[in-house]
Specification:
It contains 15 helices and 14 strands. By secondary structure, it is α/β, with parallel strands linked by helices. The model has no long low-confidence stretch (mean pLDDT 97). The chain binds ligand KE4.
Length: 429
Protein backbone atom coordinates (compact mmCIF):
# COMPACT_ATOMS: atom_id res chain seq x y z
CA UNK A 1 0.00 0.00 0.00
CA UNK A 2 1.50 3.36 -1.10
CA UNK A 3 1.75 5.82 1.82
CA UNK A 4 4.31 8.34 0.50
CA UNK A 5 2.09 11.41 0.81
CA UNK A 6 0.90 10.53 4.33
CA UNK A 7 4.52 9.95 5.37
CA UNK A 8 5.60 13.30 3.96
CA UNK A 9 2.61 15.14 5.45
CA UNK A 10 3.14 13.57 8.87
CA UNK A 11 6.77 14.67 8.89
CA UNK A 12 5.73 18.19 7.86
CA UNK A 13 2.81 18.30 10.33
CA UNK A 14 5.13 17.54 13.25
CA UNK A 15 7.03 20.77 12.54
CA UNK A 16 3.94 22.85 13.35
CA UNK A 17 1.47 20.73 15.35
CA UNK A 18 2.22 18.84 18.59
CA UNK A 19 2.70 15.21 17.53
CA UNK A 20 1.48 16.18 14.05
CA UNK A 21 -2.17 15.80 15.09
CA UNK A 22 -4.87 17.99 16.57
CA UNK A 23 -6.13 15.23 18.85
CA UNK A 24 -3.85 12.56 20.40
CA UNK A 25 -5.99 9.51 19.56
CA UNK A 26 -5.37 10.18 15.85
CA UNK A 27 -1.62 9.66 16.23
CA UNK A 28 -1.40 5.84 15.90
CA UNK A 29 0.98 6.06 18.86
CA UNK A 30 -0.20 2.86 20.50
CA UNK A 31 -0.70 0.80 17.33
CA UNK A 32 2.53 2.11 15.77
CA UNK A 33 3.12 3.34 12.23
CA UNK A 34 2.21 6.74 10.86
CA UNK A 35 -1.31 8.19 10.82
CA UNK A 36 -3.04 8.29 7.47
CA UNK A 37 -3.89 11.74 6.17
CA UNK A 38 -7.41 11.65 4.81
CA UNK A 39 -8.32 13.53 1.63
CA UNK A 40 -12.06 12.88 1.49
CA UNK A 41 -14.81 10.48 2.50
CA UNK A 42 -18.09 9.35 0.98
CA UNK A 43 -20.65 7.03 2.58
CA UNK A 44 -18.81 4.19 4.33
CA UNK A 45 -15.43 4.95 2.72
CA UNK A 46 -12.37 7.04 3.51
CA UNK A 47 -9.81 8.00 0.87
CA UNK A 48 -6.32 8.95 2.03
CA UNK A 49 -3.90 11.34 0.34
CA UNK A 50 -2.33 8.39 -1.50
CA UNK A 51 -5.74 7.45 -2.91
CA UNK A 52 -6.05 4.30 -0.80
CA UNK A 53 -9.67 3.43 0.03
CA UNK A 54 -10.82 2.17 3.43
CA UNK A 55 -14.02 0.90 4.95
CA UNK A 56 -14.49 3.28 7.89
CA UNK A 57 -15.27 1.96 11.39
CA UNK A 58 -14.37 5.22 13.16
CA UNK A 59 -16.79 7.60 11.38
CA UNK A 60 -15.12 10.62 12.97
CA UNK A 61 -15.40 8.82 16.37
CA UNK A 62 -19.16 8.57 16.09
CA UNK A 63 -20.80 11.53 14.28
CA UNK A 64 -21.11 9.99 10.81
CA UNK A 65 -23.90 7.57 11.74
CA UNK A 66 -25.44 7.80 8.24
CA UNK A 67 -22.07 7.84 6.50
CA UNK A 68 -19.77 10.57 5.20
CA UNK A 69 -20.92 13.52 3.08
CA UNK A 70 -24.55 12.64 3.76
CA UNK A 71 -26.26 14.69 1.04
CA UNK A 72 -29.06 16.39 3.03
CA UNK A 73 -26.51 17.56 5.61
CA UNK A 74 -24.03 18.82 3.00
CA UNK A 75 -26.73 20.72 1.10
CA UNK A 76 -28.11 22.27 4.29
CA UNK A 77 -24.64 23.51 5.30
CA UNK A 78 -23.95 24.93 1.83
CA UNK A 79 -27.21 26.89 1.80
CA UNK A 80 -26.97 28.12 5.41
CA UNK A 81 -23.39 29.36 4.96
CA UNK A 82 -24.65 31.90 2.39
CA UNK A 83 -26.46 33.71 5.23
CA UNK A 84 -23.24 34.06 7.29
CA UNK A 85 -21.62 31.50 9.58
CA UNK A 86 -22.34 33.02 12.97
CA UNK A 87 -24.14 35.94 14.56
CA UNK A 88 -23.56 35.63 18.31
CA UNK A 89 -27.26 36.29 18.75
CA UNK A 90 -30.26 33.99 19.20
CA UNK A 91 -31.81 32.41 16.09
CA UNK A 92 -35.01 30.53 15.31
CA UNK A 93 -32.94 27.51 14.28
CA UNK A 94 -31.59 27.13 17.83
CA UNK A 95 -35.16 27.03 19.13
CA UNK A 96 -36.10 24.42 16.54
CA UNK A 97 -32.99 22.38 17.44
CA UNK A 98 -33.81 22.46 21.16
CA UNK A 99 -37.43 21.47 20.47
CA UNK A 100 -36.32 18.64 18.18
CA UNK A 101 -33.95 17.24 20.84
CA UNK A 102 -36.71 17.49 23.48
CA UNK A 103 -39.01 15.52 21.15
CA UNK A 104 -36.43 12.72 20.82
CA UNK A 105 -34.65 12.45 24.19
CA UNK A 106 -36.39 11.74 27.51
CA UNK A 107 -36.03 13.94 30.63
CA UNK A 108 -34.95 17.08 28.79
CA UNK A 109 -36.94 20.13 29.91
CA UNK A 110 -34.19 22.62 29.03
CA UNK A 111 -31.05 22.16 26.93
CA UNK A 112 -27.99 24.36 26.33
CA UNK A 113 -25.88 24.05 23.18
CA UNK A 114 -22.07 24.13 23.42
CA UNK A 115 -19.25 23.30 20.99
CA UNK A 116 -17.88 19.96 22.18
CA UNK A 117 -18.55 16.96 24.37
CA UNK A 118 -15.90 18.25 26.78
CA UNK A 119 -17.77 21.52 27.21
CA UNK A 120 -21.03 19.63 27.70
CA UNK A 121 -19.61 17.38 30.43
CA UNK A 122 -17.68 20.08 32.28
CA UNK A 123 -20.76 22.34 32.25
CA UNK A 124 -23.02 19.55 33.52
CA UNK A 125 -20.59 18.84 36.38
CA UNK A 126 -20.36 22.54 37.30
CA UNK A 127 -24.16 22.72 37.27
CA UNK A 128 -24.49 19.64 39.50
CA UNK A 129 -22.01 21.17 41.95
CA UNK A 130 -23.72 24.56 41.85
CA UNK A 131 -27.16 23.01 42.31
CA UNK A 132 -26.22 20.71 45.21
CA UNK A 133 -23.60 22.94 46.86
CA UNK A 134 -21.36 19.86 47.01
CA UNK A 135 -17.84 19.54 45.55
CA UNK A 136 -17.04 15.86 45.02
CA UNK A 137 -18.19 13.61 42.19
CA UNK A 138 -17.74 10.00 41.11
CA UNK A 139 -16.45 8.94 37.69
CA UNK A 140 -15.46 5.45 36.59
CA UNK A 141 -12.02 4.14 35.65
CA UNK A 142 -11.73 3.99 31.89
CA UNK A 143 -14.62 6.34 31.23
CA UNK A 144 -13.73 9.50 29.32
CA UNK A 145 -15.76 12.70 29.60
CA UNK A 146 -13.49 15.01 27.62
CA UNK A 147 -10.35 16.82 28.73
CA UNK A 148 -11.62 19.20 31.43
CA UNK A 149 -9.27 18.99 34.44
CA UNK A 150 -11.70 17.24 36.80
CA UNK A 151 -12.19 14.33 34.42
CA UNK A 152 -8.53 13.60 33.71
CA UNK A 153 -8.31 11.11 36.55
CA UNK A 154 -8.07 7.42 35.55
CA UNK A 155 -9.75 8.32 32.28
CA UNK A 156 -10.22 6.26 29.14
CA UNK A 157 -9.73 6.96 25.42
CA UNK A 158 -6.30 8.47 24.70
CA UNK A 159 -5.26 8.45 28.36
CA UNK A 160 -5.81 4.70 28.55
CA UNK A 161 -4.21 4.20 25.13
CA UNK A 162 -1.08 6.07 26.19
CA UNK A 163 -1.28 4.85 29.84
CA UNK A 164 -1.36 8.39 31.21
CA UNK A 165 -2.35 7.86 34.83
CA UNK A 166 -1.93 11.42 36.07
CA UNK A 167 -1.93 14.44 33.81
CA UNK A 168 0.67 17.17 34.50
CA UNK A 169 -1.11 20.49 34.93
CA UNK A 170 -4.14 18.98 36.64
CA UNK A 171 -3.71 20.20 40.22
CA UNK A 172 -4.39 18.23 43.37
CA UNK A 173 -6.89 20.93 44.25
CA UNK A 174 -8.97 19.83 41.30
CA UNK A 175 -8.41 16.08 41.25
CA UNK A 176 -8.94 15.69 45.02
CA UNK A 177 -12.66 16.13 44.42
CA UNK A 178 -12.70 13.45 41.71
CA UNK A 179 -13.56 10.05 43.22
CA UNK A 180 -13.11 6.98 41.04
CA UNK A 181 -13.95 3.31 41.13
CA UNK A 182 -14.35 0.43 38.71
CA UNK A 183 -17.19 0.33 36.18
CA UNK A 184 -19.88 -2.28 36.97
CA UNK A 185 -18.94 -2.39 40.69
CA UNK A 186 -21.99 -1.14 42.61
CA UNK A 187 -20.55 -2.01 46.03
CA UNK A 188 -17.56 0.23 45.35
CA UNK A 189 -19.93 3.14 44.70
CA UNK A 190 -21.87 2.45 47.89
CA UNK A 191 -18.57 2.50 49.81
CA UNK A 192 -17.47 5.82 48.27
CA UNK A 193 -20.87 7.36 49.02
CA UNK A 194 -20.73 6.17 52.64
CA UNK A 195 -17.19 7.55 53.06
CA UNK A 196 -18.20 10.92 51.58
CA UNK A 197 -21.68 11.35 53.05
CA UNK A 198 -23.49 14.46 51.72
CA UNK A 199 -20.33 15.57 49.90
CA UNK A 200 -20.98 14.05 46.48
CA UNK A 201 -22.67 16.30 43.90
CA UNK A 202 -22.84 13.87 41.00
CA UNK A 203 -22.17 10.47 39.55
CA UNK A 204 -21.22 10.75 35.87
CA UNK A 205 -21.15 7.66 33.68
CA UNK A 206 -21.01 6.52 30.08
CA UNK A 207 -24.19 4.40 30.21
CA UNK A 208 -22.56 2.15 27.62
CA UNK A 209 -18.82 2.72 27.91
CA UNK A 210 -16.94 3.32 24.64
CA UNK A 211 -13.55 4.63 25.84
CA UNK A 212 -12.08 1.37 27.07
CA UNK A 213 -13.44 -0.50 24.09
CA UNK A 214 -17.19 -1.09 24.26
CA UNK A 215 -18.24 -2.19 27.76
CA UNK A 216 -21.86 -2.81 28.67
CA UNK A 217 -23.45 -2.08 32.05
CA UNK A 218 -24.24 -5.34 33.80
CA UNK A 219 -27.83 -6.24 34.72
CA UNK A 220 -29.09 -3.93 37.48
CA UNK A 221 -25.98 -1.74 37.55
CA UNK A 222 -27.45 1.50 36.19
CA UNK A 223 -30.67 0.96 38.16
CA UNK A 224 -28.52 0.52 41.27
CA UNK A 225 -26.74 3.81 40.58
CA UNK A 226 -30.11 5.49 39.98
CA UNK A 227 -31.32 4.25 43.38
CA UNK A 228 -28.18 5.52 45.15
CA UNK A 229 -28.59 8.94 43.52
CA UNK A 230 -32.24 9.11 44.57
CA UNK A 231 -31.47 8.10 48.16
CA UNK A 232 -28.46 10.44 48.53
CA UNK A 233 -29.71 13.43 46.47
CA UNK A 234 -26.85 12.97 44.03
CA UNK A 235 -27.26 14.21 40.43
CA UNK A 236 -27.06 11.28 37.98
CA UNK A 237 -25.32 12.46 34.80
CA UNK A 238 -25.48 10.28 31.69
CA UNK A 239 -22.60 11.15 29.40
CA UNK A 240 -24.30 10.33 26.09
CA UNK A 241 -21.72 11.99 23.87
CA UNK A 242 -21.22 8.59 22.22
CA UNK A 243 -24.54 6.84 22.88
CA UNK A 244 -26.85 9.82 22.28
CA UNK A 245 -28.97 9.49 19.12
CA UNK A 246 -26.84 6.38 18.28
CA UNK A 247 -28.33 3.62 20.43
CA UNK A 248 -31.86 4.93 19.85
CA UNK A 249 -33.50 8.26 19.04
CA UNK A 250 -33.60 8.77 22.84
CA UNK A 251 -30.12 7.32 23.29
CA UNK A 252 -29.20 5.08 26.22
CA UNK A 253 -31.97 6.49 28.40
CA UNK A 254 -34.50 5.10 25.92
CA UNK A 255 -32.62 1.91 25.05
CA UNK A 256 -31.75 0.94 28.63
CA UNK A 257 -34.89 2.48 30.19
CA UNK A 258 -33.02 4.45 32.87
CA UNK A 259 -33.73 8.11 33.62
CA UNK A 260 -30.81 10.45 34.21
CA UNK A 261 -31.01 13.90 35.81
CA UNK A 262 -28.60 15.60 33.39
CA UNK A 263 -27.58 14.29 29.99
CA UNK A 264 -24.66 15.37 27.83
CA UNK A 265 -24.44 15.08 24.06
CA UNK A 266 -21.85 15.44 21.29
CA UNK A 267 -20.79 13.70 18.07
CA UNK A 268 -24.03 12.67 16.28
CA UNK A 269 -25.81 15.83 17.53
CA UNK A 270 -23.52 17.91 15.29
CA UNK A 271 -23.27 15.57 12.25
CA UNK A 272 -19.51 16.24 12.18
CA UNK A 273 -19.72 19.95 13.06
CA UNK A 274 -18.51 21.12 16.51
CA UNK A 275 -21.61 20.66 18.67
CA UNK A 276 -22.18 19.50 22.23
CA UNK A 277 -25.12 19.98 24.54
CA UNK A 278 -26.24 19.39 28.09
CA UNK A 279 -29.79 19.26 29.32
CA UNK A 280 -32.15 17.88 31.90
CA UNK A 281 -34.86 18.72 34.36
CA UNK A 282 -35.96 22.36 34.63
CA UNK A 283 -35.47 22.25 38.42
CA UNK A 284 -31.74 21.82 37.81
CA UNK A 285 -31.20 23.54 34.45
CA UNK A 286 -32.80 26.79 35.64
CA UNK A 287 -29.64 27.41 37.72
CA UNK A 288 -27.67 28.01 34.52
CA UNK A 289 -26.91 31.65 33.64
CA UNK A 290 -28.60 33.90 32.78
CA UNK A 291 -31.50 32.29 34.73
CA UNK A 292 -29.26 31.36 37.63
CA UNK A 293 -25.66 31.98 38.66
CA UNK A 294 -23.99 28.81 37.39
CA UNK A 295 -22.10 30.54 34.65
CA UNK A 296 -21.54 28.85 31.29
CA UNK A 297 -21.04 30.53 27.90
CA UNK A 298 -19.66 30.15 24.36
CA UNK A 299 -19.07 32.50 21.42
CA UNK A 300 -20.04 29.86 18.86
CA UNK A 301 -22.58 27.91 20.88
CA UNK A 302 -25.60 27.21 18.65
CA UNK A 303 -24.06 28.79 15.57
CA UNK A 304 -26.16 28.39 12.43
CA UNK A 305 -23.82 26.09 10.48
CA UNK A 306 -23.40 23.62 13.34
CA UNK A 307 -27.10 23.78 14.12
CA UNK A 308 -28.29 23.17 10.57
CA UNK A 309 -25.95 20.19 10.24
CA UNK A 310 -27.07 18.59 13.50
CA UNK A 311 -30.72 19.51 12.99
CA UNK A 312 -30.78 17.95 9.51
CA UNK A 313 -29.20 14.71 10.70
CA UNK A 314 -31.37 14.39 13.81
CA UNK A 315 -34.50 15.02 11.67
CA UNK A 316 -33.43 12.17 9.37
CA UNK A 317 -32.97 9.87 12.36
CA UNK A 318 -36.27 10.89 13.93
CA UNK A 319 -38.26 10.54 10.70
CA UNK A 320 -36.69 7.20 9.73
CA UNK A 321 -36.55 5.14 12.97
CA UNK A 322 -36.03 2.06 10.80
CA UNK A 323 -32.41 3.23 10.52
CA UNK A 324 -31.81 1.97 14.05
CA UNK A 325 -33.13 -1.46 13.17
CA UNK A 326 -30.90 -1.54 10.07
CA UNK A 327 -27.88 -0.47 12.13
CA UNK A 328 -28.59 -3.09 14.79
CA UNK A 329 -28.98 -5.80 12.15
CA UNK A 330 -25.69 -4.85 10.50
CA UNK A 331 -23.90 -4.81 13.85
CA UNK A 332 -25.35 -8.22 14.74
CA UNK A 333 -24.32 -9.57 11.34
CA UNK A 334 -20.76 -8.33 11.87
CA UNK A 335 -20.69 -9.67 15.42
CA UNK A 336 -21.97 -13.09 14.41
CA UNK A 337 -19.51 -13.28 11.52
CA UNK A 338 -16.55 -12.38 13.75
CA UNK A 339 -17.80 -14.65 16.53
CA UNK A 340 -18.03 -17.63 14.19
CA UNK A 341 -14.52 -17.32 12.79
CA UNK A 342 -12.90 -16.47 16.10
CA UNK A 343 -14.52 -19.49 17.74
CA UNK A 344 -12.80 -21.69 15.12
CA UNK A 345 -9.48 -19.87 15.44
CA UNK A 346 -8.64 -20.99 18.96
CA UNK A 347 -7.78 -17.36 19.82
CA UNK A 348 -9.19 -16.19 23.20
CA UNK A 349 -11.56 -13.29 22.56
CA UNK A 350 -14.58 -11.39 23.81
CA UNK A 351 -16.91 -9.35 21.62
CA UNK A 352 -18.86 -6.61 23.41
CA UNK A 353 -21.67 -5.06 21.39
CA UNK A 354 -24.83 -3.08 21.85
CA UNK A 355 -26.56 -1.50 18.88
CA UNK A 356 -23.93 -0.04 16.53
CA UNK A 357 -21.17 0.05 19.17
CA UNK A 358 -18.88 -2.99 19.12
CA UNK A 359 -15.34 -3.99 20.10
CA UNK A 360 -13.19 -7.13 20.14
CA UNK A 361 -10.98 -7.83 23.15
CA UNK A 362 -8.43 -10.67 22.92
CA UNK A 363 -9.15 -11.86 26.44
CA UNK A 364 -10.07 -15.17 28.07
CA UNK A 365 -12.18 -13.39 30.68
CA UNK A 366 -15.25 -11.23 30.20
CA UNK A 367 -14.31 -7.58 29.70
CA UNK A 368 -16.51 -5.67 32.12
CA UNK A 369 -14.30 -2.82 33.33
CA UNK A 370 -11.02 -1.05 32.68
CA UNK A 371 -8.87 -3.63 34.51
CA UNK A 372 -10.18 -6.50 32.38
CA UNK A 373 -9.85 -4.40 29.21
CA UNK A 374 -6.24 -3.59 30.13
CA UNK A 375 -5.50 -7.25 30.90
CA UNK A 376 -6.43 -8.33 27.36
CA UNK A 377 -3.77 -9.18 24.76
CA UNK A 378 -3.78 -5.62 23.40
CA UNK A 379 -0.48 -6.03 21.54
CA UNK A 380 -2.31 -8.56 19.37
CA UNK A 381 -4.96 -5.94 18.68
CA UNK A 382 -2.20 -3.62 17.39
CA UNK A 383 -1.02 -6.27 14.92
CA UNK A 384 -4.62 -7.00 13.92
CA UNK A 385 -5.22 -3.28 13.38
CA UNK A 386 -2.41 -3.04 10.81
CA UNK A 387 -3.46 -6.23 9.07
CA UNK A 388 -6.94 -4.78 8.66
CA UNK A 389 -5.56 -1.45 7.44
CA UNK A 390 -3.55 -3.26 4.77
CA UNK A 391 -6.82 -4.98 3.80
CA UNK A 392 -8.50 -1.57 3.39
CA UNK A 393 -10.38 -1.62 6.69
CA UNK A 394 -9.87 1.28 9.06
CA UNK A 395 -10.54 0.33 12.70
CA UNK A 396 -10.07 2.74 15.63
CA UNK A 397 -6.27 2.80 16.27
CA UNK A 398 -6.57 1.55 19.86
CA UNK A 399 -7.92 -1.44 21.76
CA UNK A 400 -9.42 1.15 24.13
CA UNK A 401 -11.93 2.51 21.63
CA UNK A 402 -15.26 1.20 20.47
CA UNK A 403 -15.88 0.72 16.75
CA UNK A 404 -18.61 2.96 15.34
CA UNK A 405 -20.80 1.59 12.54
CA UNK A 406 -22.54 3.81 10.01
CA UNK A 407 -25.69 2.87 8.17
CA UNK A 408 -23.81 3.48 4.93
CA UNK A 409 -21.96 0.17 5.50
CA UNK A 410 -23.13 -2.50 3.05
CA UNK A 411 -23.29 -6.21 3.82
CA UNK A 412 -20.46 -6.59 1.30
CA UNK A 413 -18.36 -4.24 3.47
CA UNK A 414 -19.20 -6.33 6.52
CA UNK A 415 -18.27 -9.53 4.70
CA UNK A 416 -14.91 -7.99 3.68
CA UNK A 417 -14.29 -7.12 7.34
CA UNK A 418 -15.14 -10.65 8.45
CA UNK A 419 -13.00 -12.22 5.71
CA UNK A 420 -10.00 -10.02 6.45
CA UNK A 421 -10.27 -11.01 10.11
CA UNK A 422 -10.50 -14.68 9.13
CA UNK A 423 -7.30 -14.37 7.09
CA UNK A 424 -5.53 -12.79 10.05
CA UNK A 425 -6.38 -15.62 12.36
CA UNK A 426 -5.72 -18.34 9.80
CA UNK A 427 -2.01 -17.57 9.56
CA UNK A 428 0.32 -17.74 12.57
CA UNK A 429 1.77 -14.35 13.52
P1 LIG B 1 -15.16 15.99 22.64
O1 LIG B 1 -14.75 17.13 23.55
O2 LIG B 1 -13.97 15.22 22.07
O3 LIG B 1 -16.17 16.44 21.57
O4 LIG B 1 -16.01 14.95 23.52
C1 LIG B 1 -15.40 14.41 24.68
C2 LIG B 1 -16.10 13.10 25.03
C3 LIG B 1 -17.00 13.10 26.09
N1 LIG B 1 -17.66 11.96 26.43
C4 LIG B 1 -17.47 10.81 25.74
C5 LIG B 1 -18.22 9.58 26.15
C6 LIG B 1 -16.56 10.76 24.65
O5 LIG B 1 -16.36 9.60 23.99
C7 LIG B 1 -15.87 11.93 24.27
C8 LIG B 1 -14.87 11.96 23.13
N2 LIG B 1 -14.52 10.68 22.57
C9 LIG B 1 -13.22 10.57 21.95
C10 LIG B 1 -13.08 9.17 21.34
N3 LIG B 1 -13.06 8.16 22.31
C11 LIG B 1 -13.00 11.65 20.94
C12 LIG B 1 -11.85 11.43 20.00
C13 LIG B 1 -10.73 12.39 20.31
O6 LIG B 1 -10.42 12.61 21.52
O7 LIG B 1 -10.13 12.86 19.32
Amino acid sequence: MKLNNSIQLFSRAQQSIPGGVNSPVRAFKSVGGIPLFIKKARGAYLYDVDDNKYIDYINSWGPMILGHAYEPVVKAIQEKALDSTSFGAPTELEVEMAELIKSMAPNIDLIRMVSSGTEACMSALRLARGYTGRNKFIKFEGCYHGHADSFLVKAGSGLATFNIQTVPGVTGGVSNDTLTCAYNDLEAVKKLVAENKKEIAAIIIEPVAGNMGCILPQEGYLAGLRKICDEENIIFIFDEVMTGFRLAPGGAQERLKINADLITYGKVIGAGMPVGAFGGKKEIMQHIAPLGNVYQAGTLSGNPIAMIAGYTLLKELKNNPGIYKELDEKASYLRNGLDGLLKESGQAYVINQLGSMISIHFSEKPVIDFASAAAAENSLFNTYFHHMLQAGIYLPPSAYETWFLSNALSYEDLDKTIEATRKFFQHPR
